[in-house]
Amino acid sequence: MKLQISKWLQDLGIACSIASLFTLFFRLSDFAWITKSVYHIPVFFVIVFLLGLVIAEDVRKIFKKVFLYEKRKVKRPIWQVGVGFIFFLAQISAVMVFNTELTQPQLGGMPLFLVFAFMNAFMLTVIYEEIFYCKEKAKEVNE
Fold first, then answer.
1. pTM value > 0.85
2. HSE (side-chain half, CA atoms, 13 Å) at 19
3. Buried b / exposed e along 105-138 (16+ C-beta atoms within 10 A)
4. Per-block average pLDDT, block size 10, for the chain (143 residues)?
5. CA 88 to CA 120: how far, in whole Å?
C-alpha cells in the first residue's frame, strides 16, 4: 500500500511539473490566449495536468532506464535526488503559473521563491523517506 501511495505522489508531482511548465511556456509565447483562466486556474493547465497523469508513470520509468537505476547496487541516492527534484520542480513551476508576483528578485538577484522551494524540497524528501522507507533502515540496522 505504501509503495502504491509513493508512486502516486511521484506521478502527481511529475504531472504538476509538466502541466505548469507547458502552461508557462504558452503564457510567455504568442499563444497566451490558450492559457485563459477560470477562477484563477488556467484551463490549459487542467487539461495538460490530466494528460500528465496518464504519462507520468512512463516518464518515471524512462528516467530510471536512462540513469541505469536498476543496474546500480546502491539505489537509494539516485532515488533521493529524483524525489527531491520532483518536489522542487513542482513547487517552482506552480509558483511560476499561479503566483508570478512572487518571482521578483529579492535576494541578491535570485528570486526568494527558489530558496524556499529548495528548502521545502529538502524537508519534503526527508519526511517522504521517513514515511515510506523506515522499514529498510530497520532491516539494515538488524543485519
1. no
2. 27
3. eeeeeebebeeebeeebeebbeebbeeeeeeeee
4. 77 89 83 78 88 89 80 70 84 84 70 85 84 63 59
5. 8
Task: Identify the residue whose cell numbers are 484551463.
Answer: 43
> Which amino acid, 136?
E
Tell me the torsion sign for CA atoms 33, 34, 38, 40. Answer: negative
Residue 20 burial by Cβ neighbours in a 10 Å radius (0-12, 13-18, 19+): buried
**β-pairing, 110-111 with 105-107?**
antiparallel
CA 93 – CA 103 distance, rounded (Å): 11
Distance from C-alpha of 2 to C-alpha of 9, rounded to nearest angstrom: 11
